[in-house]
Amino acid sequence: MSARTRIKICCISSLAEAEMAIAAGADALGMVAATPPGSGMVDDATIRAITAEVPPPIATFLLSSRLTGLEIAEHVRHCGASTIQIVDHIDPAEIAVLAVSLPAIRRVQVIHVDGPAALDLIPRYEPYVHAFLLDSGKPGGTMRELGGTGRTHDWDVSRAFVRATRRPVFLAGGLTPANVGEAIAKVAPFGVDLCTGVRTDGHLDPEKLAAFMAAVRAA
What are the percentages of helix, strand and coil residues in the chain, rounded to 5? Predict the structure, then answer.
């Protein structure tokens, strides 16, 4: 029997959305702090109010675009999350600083997949993180995107990434109830993560959420 695929629901913007996702069976919740343009941004006070109420063993991910280990550590302490999702390709030395500052916090590095070169980042980050998350952003350029794009990327690259690293890998980027089964079959990720695919007019949609959960369980 294959391992169960974990499910992370991102862009949680209220306690009500958190409770809906947990009731549907989510393993983890993601809260997006102020970042370059993207979906689901929420203020730190709201994040703190959500993380204070989430029961174990549900993981709470803070998505932060801060660039130094000390700044990220301060952000995590303030928001009370159990996991930090680093959404930019930062200097690994800063993740090492974060690990010393907050050793109990789980560290997840986002890799924005824009071709096979994404695999070159495995040795750069693998010694410093507990997991990777593959997304479809574009951290370079004038219009920086660090997640929440609703776009898929090349799942062949994602599959190669999963096979090449010893760390668990979450797959994100354009997942929906219609395509998540194919994504799981092709990539075999540890977990899947999505924001826009279970939302209608920016709000978590219970019907889309239920359909996504059913599709993952059936995969």
Answer: 40, 20, 40
The residues spanned by each domain of the chain are 6-218
175: burial class by Cβ within 10 Å (0-12, 13-18, 19+)? Answer: buried
Q: Class assignment of domain 6-218? A: alpha beta
State which H helix or E strand residue 49 sits in: helix 44-51
* pLDDT, tens digit, 9 for 90 and up, residues 132-158: 999 976 555 544 445 555 578 899 999
What is the greatest pairwise CA distance in the chain?
46
105 φ, ψ (degrees, to nearest 5)? -80, 130
- The CA-atom distances, in angstroms, between 176 and each of 133, 156, 188, 209 are 17, 18, 16, 9
Taking phi first (over 0 means left), then psi (-120 to 50 degrees means alpha), and beta for anything else, what does residue 105 get?
A: beta
Tokens at 5, concatenated: 């695929």
113: three-class secondary structure by DSSP: coil
Tell me: the pLDDT tens digits for 10-35?
A: 999 999 999 999 999 999 999 999 65
Q: What is the CA radius of gyration of the chain?
A: 16
> pTM of the prediction?
0.91
- Give the pLDDT confidence of 157-172 residue by residue, as tens digits: 999 999 999 999 999 9
